[in-house]
Design a protein that fits this description.
The longest helix has 24 residues, at about 15-35. Helix content is about 75%, strand content about 0%. The chain is elongated. It is built from two helices and no strands. The protein is mainly α.
């Protein structure tokens, strides 16, 4: 019989998705400012995606 205390599930898929969403939002703010300053939108989007993925990767390692 269980003691009634919940145990955490091993899957971290939800964590990864939320980390990616937060990283994209943070990078998107900076991207918006860069585009407003005259940067090419395609270049800004590429930088945003790269930085968001790099942030999530670092978060998983640390």
């Amino acid at each position: 019989m269980s003691s009634g205390t919940p145990t955490p599930k091993p899957g971290r898929g939800g964590d990864l998705a939320s980390q990616l969403a937060v990283a994209c939002l943070g990078a998107g703010v900076v991207t918006s400012l860069a585009v407003a300053s005259g940067q090419n939108p395609t270049t800004a989007l590429g930088i945003t995606l790269f930085s968001a993925v790099a942030a999530v990767m670092m978060g998983q390692v640390l």
